[in-house]
Amino acid sequence: MGKVKQKGDSKETGGSKEKEPLKNEWETSDFLMAQKRINRAAQSLKLDDNVIGPLKHPKRSLSVVIPCRMDDGSVRAFQGYRVHHDLALGPGKGGIRYHNQVNLGEIAGMAMLMTWKCSLMNLPFGGAHGGIRLDPSALSMTELEKVTRRFTSEIIEIIGPDQDIMGPDINTNEQTMAWIMDTYSINVGHTVPSVVTGKPKSIGGSLGLLEATGYGVSLCTQKLLSHLGMSNDAPTVVIQGLGRAGTGTAKNLIKAGFKIVGVSENSGGLYNPNGIDIEKVKAHYREHKTMDTYPDAEHVERDSLVELKCDVLALCAVANQIHAGNVDKIQAKVIVEGANAPTTPEADDVLNSRGIHVLPDILSNSAAVTVGYFEWVQGLMRLFWNEKEVYDRLDTLVTRTCDQVFETAKTHKLSLRDAAMRIALERVVEARRLRGLYP
Quick one: CA dihedral 307, 310, 315, 316, positive or negative? Predict the structure, then answer.
């Protein structure tokens, strides 16, 4: 009797063992989480895999090695990535991040997220993203410039104002965008301001872009609470993360009559039911680099801040902050995602079953890419708008999209995330259908 094949054995073909197929390089936990979102939306639209299959993977991904001569004369090699997820609606649009944990799966997942964000806002962009695996705090400004310029040169064939437009993301800023713009322009022989967004105003940046994310998160929060009938006096807010997005969100919500009762930074969190002075907290943190010595609030563990009781929990830090391990402890009535992917799909299901509304990232933090679109248009036209014009246009687009998401959720009995994904996916699928399959 022949050997009974056990589970896990390699297949045998012609005397040789056939290895199990490898997974795609980008299939990390971050990317697989992004795929779960599209699967849920596809079920809502009753789309089969012939339609959805290509959208479950990036259209193209470029991995490059970036050699750099360091200040001490040594040469180090850094890993860089640029990914295009889908370009059916237009050229790619997405940020570039510098972090020592950057990998292809993370970048591919972010590119997919950008596809849905641009589609939901009805912008003429596809989804893209990029990053370099490095610790920017360990490099000098000269070294960062060299790495940025070499990275731009390595990916220059797939970027451009009609191909892929980069913007700032984690640990990149206006200066990074200026270096990218200059490097690209030198290589093509003329100045091309619309190859990036988020650049300094003196070389074509748009008014309002730096403040756009916080402003947009605040605007979406106000629209949602009004829609839910929760616009009572001074709704309480807890904000995780006091970076640019979190600080902007806090300031705009305070202006709108909200009360900030909890905040956190890397070193810890603060809670005061009577309200927190954001400017005072920021000044203290700049001076002491810690929350531990702040006198006018109760100190809480950074990771416990999301469990505080409040009307609104604004997640403005990093990904995967609400997950299966802490979702049952969430006491907020509404969660607003100021960061990208701060809630896992598993936590989403629990929150939905508990009646906690989650305003998804592809809507709530979409103001930055929307004003980035305005900057791209202004650069192409060589005609610039004043701040009022920028914010009037932003208000119109954000308000219209909020109304569409709320109506879709009501009509199809969906969560806000599933409603937003349904709208975004439907537009991309329609564009792909009309363009056809080549060849």
Answer: negative
DSSP letter (8 states) at residue 160: B
**So where are the chain's domains?**
29-191, 211-364
CATH 3.40.50.720 fits 211-364, yes or no: yes
Omega before 439 within 30 of 0, i.e. cis:
yes
Distance CA 97, CA 115 (A): 17
**Domain 29-191 maps to which CATH number in 2.70.98.10, 3.40.50.10860, 2.40.110.10, 3.40.50.880?**
3.40.50.10860
Q: Is the dihedral of CA 385, 387, 389, 395 positive or negative?
A: positive
- Maximum CA extent, the chain: 83
pLDDT confidence of residue 5: 44
Cβ-based neighbour number of residue 397 at 10 Å: 19
Radius of gyration, alpha carbons of the chain: 23
Q: Residue holding tokens 């079920």?
A: 43
pLDDT digits (tens, 9 = 90+) for 188-213: 999 999 999 999 999 999 999 989 99
Please say whether the beta carbons of 83 and 62 come within 8 A.
Answer: yes
Q: d(Cα 391, Cα 385) in Å, to the nearest integer?
A: 10
The answer to whether 359 and 352 are in contact (CB under 8 A) is no
pTM to 2 decimals? Answer: 0.92
